[in-house]
Each structure stands twice: as structure tokens, then as C-alpha cells.
Amino acid sequence: MNRSHVQKIGFVFLTLCAIAVVAPILVVIGIVFIEGVRVMSWEFISAVPHEGMKEGGIFPAIVGTLLLTLGTAICAIPVGVGGSVYLAEYAKDNWMTRAIRLAIVNLAGIPSIVYGLFGLGMFVLFMHMGTSIIAGVLTLAIMTLPVIISTSEEALRSVPTEFRTVSASLGGTRWQGIRNIVLPQALPGIITGIILGLLRAAGETAPILFTVAAFYLPRLPQSPFDQVMALPYHLYVISTQVPGMPLSVQYGTALVLLILVLSMNFVATIIRSYFRRRRQW
């Protein structure tokens, strides 16, 4: 068998593998869309639930998910990007930094339920925040930090060293070179890490189960110390805890969550593509 035949067999095998991965995802998305679109209406999006959550809408859960995602971004992005800048640009290559990187990688693989238990012990009980938005936001922020730090550090390290050398040769300080040259060039990769972390936070159930999520709360939160409904937990509740829940409502909730996550991904892709076109290497 010559090399061209081996190459064709390899391409066919890789194509089949790609189809095996993508096809189930498309089937699931298609089923959720077909079943969920039947219940989609303005009332379903803008009304509060009633009649044991079997009637009305999911507006409080949508608002709660947006608040938790926004709060996570506010808490996690500055710390995550700042930590990655320190590790990539300032920290020396010694046992301590290697241990920190190893810890970050290990933290990224911890199940989300463990973060939920940590948030319960640290923020809800020890710091007396109670089950509140701020406790849930801090828990989600800690959960997303390893992803943001590791991906942002890789993006910073991928910027050619010549950029830093030219900045230093022109009399710029290290921070000026990082702020004006390295960070703008690494933005596409940093945005990728940020959106991966936030998408995970928006779709998680276990961390908010112990720290912020309310079973049934047909009103909007009034302060950061209030509980709130969230789409992932609401979907879990109406699927497993409410007898006689119409299947269309479950699929409709899943469709709204899917649209929210895909919209965030779409906006992030546009921003990332814009900065990638401006990249000079």
C-alpha cells in the first residue's frame, strides 16, 4: 500500500471521527429546538412562573443567569488575566511557579460539585453571606479562574519575543511593552479563555445549587444578598422535582439556555475575530 492510499484512509478515518462527534450534538440541538419552539412566546420569555411553575414564563431565571454570568466576569476576568500576566511575564521559572501552574491545571479538572461544597463552606457558612448572589458569583469565579489563567498565559507566551525586545530597545518599560504590545496581540487567545470559563459558569448547576439558586422565586432580586432563580437549576427542578410538568416547558427552558450560551459564544467570536485581524504576526 503506497503513501497516497494510506493518506486517503487516514482522511476518511478522521472524517468519520469528526462526524461521530458532531452528529450527536446536532441531533440533540435539533430535538431541543423542535420541541422547545412549540412553547416559545413573549409570555414564556417575559412572565414570571405560576401554577407551580407549570404556567407563565421563566423571566426570573433568565435574569438570574445573566446576573450570575456578569458577576462572574467582573470578579474572574481581572484576577485571571492579571495572574496570567504575572506568570507569563514576571514570574521566574522555579519550583514555586511550576507548583502554581500544576495547581492551576489540577483545579481546572476538579468536578463542579466540589466547588459548590467549597462555596457552601467558605462563603455561605464561614463568611455568613448566606445563599445569595454574591456567594454564587464568588464560587463561579473561583471555578472559572483556572481556565482563564491557563489559556491567557498560553496566549501571552505565544506572542513572539521580538515584540518585547523591540519595545525595550525603544526605551519602554516592561509594563509598557506588556500593556501596549503584548496584551493587544494576545487578546484573541485571552478572549477565548474568558468565554470558555463564562460559558461553563452559565451552564453549571452544582455550584449554584448550594450557594444561590432558589427552587421557586417568582420575583427579581433586590440586592446582592438575595437568592435568585437560574436557568440550569430551574431546568433541573422542572425536569426532576415537579410532577406533571409539561415536556414542552422543559424543552423550552433548555432552548432558552442554549440560545443564551450560543449568543454569548457568537458575540465573543466576533470580538475575537476583530482583534485577530488586527494582529501583526
Describe the structure.
The protein is mostly helical. The chain has a domain at 56-230: Orthogonal Bundle (MetI-like fold). It has helices at 3-36, 42-46, 59-90, 95-108, 112-126, 133-157, 161-169, 174-203, 206-211, 231-240, 247-278, and strands at residues 49-50, 55-56. It has a two-stranded antiparallel ribbon with strand order 1-2. Helix 7 (161-169) runs antiparallel to helix 8.
CATH topology of the domain at 56-230: MetI-like fold
Indicate the low-confidence ranges by residue numbers. Answer: none
CATH class category name of the domain at 56-230:
Mainly Alpha
Work out the helix count: 11
Distance between the termini: 41 Å
In total, how many beta strands? 2
Radius of gyration: 22 Å
Assess the beta-strand content as a share of residues: under 5%
The CATH architecture of the domain at 56-230 can be given as Orthogonal Bundle
Structural class: mainly alpha
**Chain oligomer state:** single chain
- N-to-C SSE series? HHEEHHHHHHHHH
In CATH, what is the homologous superfamily of the domain at 56-230? MetI-like
Q: Give the strand line-up of the largest sheet.
A: 1-2
Helix content: over 70%
SSE layout and pairing:
Blueprint: H1 3-36, H2 42-46, E1 49-50, E2 55-56, H3 59-90, H4 95-108, H5 112-126, H6 133-157, H7 161-169, H8 174-203, H9 206-211, H10 231-240, H11 247-278
Antiparallel strand pairs: 1-2
Helix pairs in contact: 1-11, 3-6, 3-8, 4-6, 5-6, 6-8, 7-8, 8-11, 10-11
